[in-house]
What does this fold into?
Amino acid sequence: MATVAVYNIEGKEVDKLELNDSVFGVEINEHLVHLAVVSQLANSRQGTQSAKTRSEVSGGGKKPWRQKGTGHARQGSTRAPQWTGGGVVFAPKPRDYSMKMNKKEKQIAIKSALTSKVQDTKLVVVDQFNLDEIKTSKFAKVLKNLNVEKALVVTKDVEEKLVLSARNIPTVKTTVSNAINVYDILKYDSLVMTKDAVAAIEEVYA
It folds into this structure.
């Protein structure tokens, strides 16, 4: 089992924590990690883009000029794509971009992402965030004590003071242990978790 240091918000080591190898020490499956990221980004697309084809643009029912004898190229409608005000060729239409992954694939992808953070020594475990007030500057100091900048901060339950203190820091995102995803884990350089969050994740994914 991998062992990591546990820090307090002053950045001092206060304990050691053994990580469950079935969650934080698996063989990394790059294919499923890639699939999970692509799936999440695809599922976040609205798919509401739309433009009109030549059959949907109003007007253009009358042939602009006779077929022969004018010296112009033949034209059948002023709403053909080559005309100003005409329809769009292969116009985009609303569609569903969502992709599906089965439950086991998602679990393997998350375990792989967590393992990669442990291997890169980018996992920082904190005993608890006992913030006494909502203060962005104080939380920024906590991050500096932990020597992290761009970080995903994970707690077991929603901690309102922490969430409100971190929301104005553009390089930080807060979430809870049951809402972690592969994209966020990989997007941020460091993964900062409380001991309770680690235990909750191990309970779900072990």
Summary: The helical segments are 21-24, 30-43, 103-119, 136-145, 160-166, 182-187, 195-205.
